[in-house]
Design brief:
- The structure is a single chain.
- This protein folds into 2 domains: 100 residues, Immunoglobulin-like; 594 residues, TonB-dependent receptor, beta-barrel domain (Maltoporin, Chain A, Beta Barrel).
- A hairpin with a 2-residue loop joins strand 16 and strand 17.
- The chain starts with a helix and ends with a strand.
- The chain is mostly beta strands.
- It has a 22-stranded antiparallel β-barrel.
- It is globular.
- The longest helix has 20 residues.
- The protein has 7 helices and 41 strands.
């Protein structure tokens, strides 16, 4: 009996070995849509090492001992990968695959939002943080660097972003898909402002000068789209010492969480004491601020990003009082700003992705112009949901919604006893959808529709959007964009009259772009028409009954851009030129005229040269613009004069050196190297005899110098 049991055990062992070693054979052929055999295509079971490649006839044969349902992936360079679920059996499975040509891989371009040329990122000009930090005229300001790109105008006494004949309020800043209500520091008239956010917070900066996605609204002219950094790679801390202040930062990272904190303090009093200023300062600008960024991985694909900032600033100065024969008036300003932005993103199988974001912003201004008092508070929030489904590599559709509660309050009082309290409470909402598709391997198209509602206006709007691109050759494309864009009038206008309409703009843009071997050339024609702009009587600006929505205007122009970072060793440079033909009648304009912020010609050149032997990068930027219109009240007509042309040549140098195992930088820059006496316009006051006297608006100093030392530590 023992003998038979032993023989039976051997037979069972051999049977189990045979069962365990039983294999499945998968074989077939791989071709493209034209029937051509693809040699070297990769065929592999997802998540395993079981795979093979196709032979010279496109045939393949794969052997595996895997059981159950497996996912087979077939890929080949320049083609859209295919996946198919396969039930493993002890048999031969025949599967043939036909791969579709993928021009995005053949062209080696970045696919954005599920397509290529029709996306915001491809149509826009993308800058990295380093591009902004090393642009001499920008001095580390995002908006200063953007002003070197085509379509923008340098408005030196303001500092905000002016695009294609549009006012600054027509351009919106967007962080992680959410609108920033107050992206600039508070300032007074004729004193330029800067952006609140450091370029180092963002992985990239995309500037859309028009025709942007239906995901975004409330911007008549343009969108500056900022994407925050993801998970940092290493823990470190840094210290910065500048001629105008100090900064410090620390970043802590583990496998699934990171936290970064930074603090900045600036005091311009020592600098103003050394460099003579035209402004008579009582107390030079001082500010303190901080940023907290948290990144948390959630599950397999989820990510929560939270960014919070705080800033407090104040200054006191003597400013001309043009209503009192040009005498000086004291102005005190205090500002505090709180900003919170949170974004949760996740992805599921079958091409589904979700983004849920929210923002809360509180901005407070306390201003004392002369004997008056102005207290302003702006409370803004946004909750936004975007769901995207990728049906195939050539088709995806997204849909979303957002709500935007906004509460604005201004309390104004004079020593005489006059009091005015302005209140604007608006609850906005929007629905949007967008489809992106690639046709015939050469044409990309994006169709969008956005609907918005404003409770303060009690009105709705519907804005269709269209973008297309035709890849005429591997390195050349033609793009077209058109759409309607709506914006709720600013609260400073709505506080007097809420019975207004959405302001409206209609865009038409035609673009040609050539990109090859480190060279980019683009030329863009555009036409922009304005409707329902707010108007009021400049002689009676506090009379709400005289506020209407019958303003209009237009902007026509051409933008040229050339960038080359390969022809010359260690040299990167770009040129921008814009021609703008713009007229409008809005606000207190007496008649239709070219606005003061839209010079006809704008030219910028930026160059950077890295010298390895010196470990130093040298930079130069040149900005030239034709004269800007201004109105002289002592002459007939409106906007009948023009300033002299504007020019600024700025230089900088960045010496890079190792310090405690990390890269550190010694930085220096100077603006307006030639010392040109630029004039931005003229203000007028009337004498007792009724004569008008002109006062030129100039920069606060002929030149601006900056020196900084930035140390990084492990």
């Amino acid at each position: 009996m023992t003998k038979y049991i032993f023989i039976l055990a051997i037979l069972l062992t051999q049977l189990l070995t045979f069962v365990c070693n039983a294999q499945t054979t998968i074989k077939g052929n791989v071709t493209n849509t034209s029937g051509e055999k693809l040699t070297g295509a990769t065929i592999i079971l997802k998540g395993t090492i079981d795979g093979t490649i196709s032979n010279g006839n496109g045939d393949y044969e794969l052997f595996t001992h895997r059981k159950g349902t497996q996912v087979l992936t077939v890929s080949f360079l320049g083609y859209v990968p295919l996946t198919q679920s396969v039930e493993m059996k002890d048999t031969v499975i025949n599967l043939n695959f036909q791969l579709r040509n993928n021009p995005t891989e053949l062209k080696d371009i970045v696919i954005s939002a599920g397509s290529f040329e029709a996306s915001d990122k491809k149509k826009g000009v993308t800058l990295k943080p380093l591009d902004i930090l090393t642009t001499p005229s920008a001095n580390g300001d995002i908006y200063g660097a953007i002003a070197t790109l085509p379509g923008t105008s340098v408005v030196g006494e303001d500092g905000r972003l002016f695009v294609r004949g549009g006012d600054a309020y027509e351009s919106k800043t967007i962080i992680d898909g959410l609108v920033v209500k107050k992206p600039y520091n508070s300032s007074t008239p004729d004193l330029p402002t800067r952006g609140r956010f450091s370029p180092s917070l963002f992985a990239g900066t995309t500037f859309s000068s028009g025709g942007y996605s239906a995901q975004y609204g409330q911007a008549l002219s343009s969108a500056l789209i900022l994407q925050t950094e993801g998970m940092p790679q290493k823990s470190q801390w840094g210290f910065g010492l500048l001629s105008v202040g100090v900064s410090g930062s620390e970043t802590l990272v583990d496998s699934r969480t990171s936290a970064s904190v930074s603090i900045d303090y600036s005091d311009l009093q020592p600098y103003f004491s050394a460099i003579k200023q035209r402004i008579k300062w009582i107390e030079a600008p001082q500010s303190i601020g901080g940023t907290l960024s948290i990144r948390q991985k959630i599950g397999q694909n989820g990510m929560l990003k939270v960014m919070s900032t705080f800033s407090s600033s104040e200054f006191k100065l003597w400013s001309p009082d043009y209503s009192n024969q040009g005498e000086l008036m004291r102005i005190d300003l205090k500002n505090s700003n709180y900003f919170l932005n949170a974004l949760y993103s996740d992805g599921w199988g079958d091409g589904w992705t979700l983004k849920l974001g929210s923002t809360l912003q509180v901005d407070r201004n306390k201003i004392k112009p002369g004997t008056s008092n102005v207290n302003e508070q702006d409370l803004y929030g946004q909750l936004k949901l975007v769901i995207r489904k990728e049906f195939s590599p050539i088709l995806n559709i997204l849909a979303g919604a957002d709500i935007t509660p906004n509460r604005y309050r201004q309390d104004y009082s004079e020593q005489s006893g006059f009091i005015y309290n302005g209140r604007v409470n608006d609850y906005g909402s929007a629905l949007f959808t967008e489809a992106e598709s690639m046709l015939f391997d050469k044409i990309a198209i994006r169709l969008g529709l956005r609907s918005e509602y404003s409770s303060v206006l009690n009105k709705s709007s519907v804005a269709p959007r269209l973008s297309m691109a035709w890849l005429i050759s591997p390195n050349n494309q033609i793009s077209f964009a058109s759409g309607l864009f709506y914006q709720t009038p600013e609260e400073t206008l709505l506080r007097f009259n809420k019975d207004l309409d959405f302001e409206q703009a209609r865009h038409f843009i035609l673009n040609y772009q050539h990109e090859k071997d480190g060279h980019i050339f683009r030329v863009e024609l555009y036409a922009k028409d304005y409707f329902h702009l707010v108007r009021y009587d400049k002689n009676d600006p506090y009379n709400g009954k005289k506020y209407t929505s019958d303003g209009n205007g237009y902007a026509r122009g051409i933008d040229l851009f050339w960038r080359d970072f390969k022809s010359l060793k260690n040299v990167d440079y770009w040129f921008s030129y814009s021609w703008i033909n713009s007229q409008r009648i809005y606000r207190d304009y007496e008649s239709k005229a070219r606005p003061s912020f839209a010079p006809e010609h704008n030219f910028s050149a930026v160059g950077k040269w890295f010298v390895p032997k010196l470990q130093t990068q040298f930079g130069a930027s040149l900005s030239v613009a034709s004269g800007r219109p201004y109105d002289n009240p002592s002459e007939s007509g409106f906007m009948q004069n023009e300033t002299k042309y504007y020019m600024d040549l700025s230089l900088n140098a960045s010496y890079i050196f190792p310090f405690m195992g990390k890269t550190s930088v010694l930085y220096t820059s100077v603006s307006n190297m030639t010392g040109r006496q630029n004039i931005f316009g003229y203000r007028y006051y009337q004498t007792a005899q009724g004569n008008y006297v002109a006062d030129p608006v100039r920069p606060e100093a002929t030149r601006f110098f900056l020196i900084g030392l930035f140390l990084n530590f492990k």
